[in-house]
User: Fold these one by one.
Assistant:
Number 1:
Amino acid sequence: MTGRGWWWRGMGPEVCLLAFFSISVWGWSIGSAAEGEEVFSSVKVSWLPEEPKQGEVLRLWVNAPEGVVVERGEMLSRPLHFSSSPDRSGLWDALLGIDMRQDPGEYEVSICLGKAEDPATRNLTAPIRILPQTFGEERLTLPDSKVHLSEEDLERVRKEKVQISSLWPADTPERLWEGPFLLPVEGRQGSPFGLRRWINGEPRSAHSGMDIKAPEGRPVQAANNGRVVLVGDFFFAGRAVFVDHGQGVYTMYFHLSQIDVKEGQEVAKGEVLGLVGMTGRASGPHLHWGVRLGGARVDPASLVERTQGGL
């Protein structure tokens, strides 16, 4: 594991409010010394990538001595759900999504630490710089009926947007996913994440997923363990499946020709969710694979990369 790391530079019995202390050194919170606080002296935090870009997944690790627990964390006003390693004592990790339109700049990550049988918690902070990402452009030609919508279609699209958007705040605290996320289907890369799209010469919103070109009928697999939270036939997405993997991670699978799972169903990594198709607004058979992490629109390829190698 490489990347920037920070050692705990101070500690105090203050209650953790996930906010900044008034005095800090090298980004770490400082408090008055107290009896027993030496246990925090070897706490270290590291993250990858060192300077994440817009649309990337950030992974953080906390390496703490025995008896220290990571209570919670926060960055960009989004919660960080830390889980401990089942194989390595004292190692904790969490994922954070950097939205594709997040303003570049320096932000603080805040992490709350505690000890067993001690009601007080300790807060530490560190600066993380987010860099701009360069996204390309794509020009598509589609039937006019798929571009200029009727009032009836517009109303349908509005209702579907509300229905889908209601998923992201439902933050399942436990981690359902395990190990690396997988590409859900074999195929050639189509439109990559973040493309600014022009349809029939008119600007449209950026592409918030990745497209994988594959023959119609090819099986589409769950990228990781999770729970199916929504299935349906949508105007733009066509037949689609949404999976909650816990801790704010959602994956979505669009344009399916067939759906083989139900809402509420538990799915295992690699389990077939449906088949590649071209339903909804699609110019050919492919899978649109999208990821939301804490509500942030992130590149699925970044999720795959960040979850390689376990903890």
Number 2:
Amino acid sequence: MIDAQSVLLHGPKIITETDVLSDHAIEIRDGVITGLLALDADLPTDIPHCALPADHFLVPGLIDCHIHGASGADVMDADPDALQVMAEVLLKKGTTQFFATTMTAPSGEISQALKAVTQFRRQPKQGFAQIAGVHLEGPFLSPQRPGAQCARHLSQPDWEKFQQWQHDAEGAIKLVTVAPELHGACQFIEQCHHHEVVASIGHTAASCAQAQAGIDAGATHATHLFNAMTGVHHREPGAATAILMDKRVAAELIVDFVHVHPDSVRFAVETKGADKIILVTDAMRAQCLGDGRFELGGQKVTVQQGEARLDNGVLAGSVLTLDQALRNMKQGDIASLCDMVNMASLNPAKSMGISGYHGSIAVGKIADLVLLDGAWNVVSVLQSWSENEGC
């Protein structure tokens, strides 16, 4: 059994922020990447060497900053055991960090969900994806663009209410979606910015000018670009237009080719730049379970042929996994290997303020690594404290 806390990995192609290295090894000591070493150099002999297949790829652990559920469990179950179910299946799919995403619901239900996240985070477990924080999606959303959110529980932005939820979460709310056209929204966004909480434009009926006002107030993130927002129109430019034009904003994309057409994905990448696109799943509890009837935010959802919809036909999150999003990007030849990996790792890490230790294969960062085969399926995951299954 090889100690993955200190090991030299070599063999597969290594995808860094800017290069695909085929002739290097990764040196890991005490769970931290300490070197990217050329194979023709003198390699250290005081730690174990682990040879992996040459036709495989090593990428950084994937980071999902927008996910509601997986494998029958949901954040709004308000149960640490449900979060553990999610964390277990996510790790198997290559996601090592995720932001537990809430739904619009009565205030007390949101509080209970946040307290469950707090309880789970107090005891991080080996062999599970880690909850890096909370994404509060709702209730500060537009009643005109609720998507699959429960419209009767929507409310205007309320900083005092948010502070109570932040107290329940012990400061774990790192991202909050808000419609910038709502009364008091820009002041709310300013407060988020002041308190180092990322404000995200989403579920919005804003005009381009109203969205731009939200960005000027401090919003630096956009929730599932194109979905549940005003779009790109030549006479009435909406929120999507402002988001695409402003380089201060990083934009989520659900690349299941159901929520967004492949050509629209390409348009977004080419317009905003690959460094400002974040791949997310927006997955609900049906992720990894196949077709059937499920529940999201108290509403019935039918999953059929990879699409999750309410009974009225509205898309209700997805059943996408981040590794599948990468395969979709690769199949569509939408971005370079480095860029598309960054979209699922480095870019979310930067947007959420955790890129100092996560998000890429670089010296000084935590050694959360994913081994992919030639078809980009997850073979194994190495966490900084765990043994590497591939060795």
Number 3:
Amino acid sequence: MEFSAQQIAALLGGTVEGNPHVTVNTLSKIEEGKTGSISFLANPQYTPFIYDTDASVVIVSKTFSPEKSLKPSCTLVRVDNPYESFAVLLNAYDSFKRNKKGIEQPSFIAEGVELPEDVYIGAFVYVGKNVKLGKNVKIYPNSFIGEGSVIGDNTTIFAGVRIYHETLIGNNCTIHSGVVIGGDGFGFAPNSENNYQKVAQIGNVIIEDNVEVGSNTTIDRATMGSTIIRKGVKLDNLIQIAHNVEIGENTVIASQTGVAGSTKIGKNCMIGGQVGIIGHIKIGDNVKIAAQSGIGGNIEENDILQGSPAMNHGSFKKSFIVFRKLPELLKRLELLENLFKKEQTK
């Protein structure tokens, strides 16, 4: 689908400088711009590329002043903030590309499923009994939706997702490929025979509105009650969320982090990659945890931590300075010991 420079300017609240009727049908980086594409210039480091780009339309700041002539084929759309405006275009383009509807075959839809007319169900999808799908839900091929689950309006389930029974997912969520939601929590009890008896996991998972879950992340169902992901949470790829965990609204967690069972994480937290968090603790609101940290106890709100075991970020930096000097300090200590021994022998 093609859009003119004038239509794009209207969408972004910008003005056209050049040919308002030139059309584009794809997006590109400015250094890779081709005829028929639209790009943007926000970082001054990329300014040299605008003079040679073949992009038909480039979004620039209203204050941008070319130092030399642009190619005649290049039309500018001037806006207040090029980066934000291009993000708007990216979202619009992504929505257009995802605008799928209908039910592909072969697929299986069990009895009692609530199925609005505007949903998309890809090939080889299984939808279990009494599932409720909201408006504009999109379920891509090879996904499984367990019985009794609910998926809210405008939520996208990408290919190969496994959603176990009685999972509740809110509106405007995105679940990427390979995610498993509602698998059993890691519940085993030692018995008299010195092995482990499985503890049935009879709870569920609740994911509120505007949550995004990255590829191959797993969110376990609760032993009893619910594992809860609050609204606005963003989970990266390859994250493990254990049974009965609760993650507060608008918290973001980077890849390869593991959260053990029954831990409660507050809202607006930022957790780096490869962080390990033990179970049954509470992490306060607005906490920041640096990558590869190990969290072994409760954390007060607004704290910033780093290291394993984690400590206050400021204390960690001071300690690290000392740690780097340990070889030098060891030499000085050995020198002092030798001097002391010489004094003792006199």
Number 4:
Amino acid sequence: MSPDELLDRLCQKPFKPFCVRLSDNATINVLYHPGAVVVGLTKAVMPLEYVQDGLGPKLVLRWKTVELDQIVELLDL
């Protein structure tokens, strides 16, 4: 997957949660703020676990670095 394809999905207005399916069939759900995903030229840092902050927003507890060429598809949730 190209960085532009992933960025296009992240920048959709309004943001729609989606699932990233990887070549090993693992999945990563991007449920909340698109700013939780950092996209580079060949890799993306993706959120794995969220927590509710006392003030209300969702915070990311754990991340995973993924090679963009391992992303097979983006699925609606």
